[in-house]
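Treating backbone geometry as a discrete language has practical consequences that deserve illustration. The amino acid sequence and the backbone structure tokens for this protein are reproduced below.
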Amino acid sequence: MKNQTKTAALTRAAMTAALYVVLTLVANMLGLANGAVQIRLSEALTVAPIFFAESIGGLTAGCLIANLITLCAPLDVIFGTIATLLGALGTRALRKSRPLAVMCPIVSNTVIVPFVLKFAYGLGDAWWYMAFTVCIGEIISCALIGTLVIKIFDKHKTRL
């Protein structure tokens, strides 16, 4: 039974990573995944650590792979992945308070990504503007779409 549990956890982590990559590629095809204004559909999955600790690794790996596939700048690959990791860790730590848990990836990306946009892509000195636009995108992805993901997980948690 213990091996079955490990296999299920590994499968959930791998599925989280794969879904993150696919959703980022969809957002990228729609022109939403990168830049000062970004709505990464994949960020809706950052609520998964509320339910499964192993999704932290899946989100981190998925973000890393997605950033490499979409040809992000090296600083973006590194620090964008760190932002996702920190958001996922915070989500897991605050999982008992879902509204606070959902805020973790919003905050981590709002703080880190504007610096990435400035230093990796030379998008200027308007940190507050970039923080605002990233925050809005994260609210749409994590809070709005993420809340739908939470409802789906709640409804099907016995099968997950």
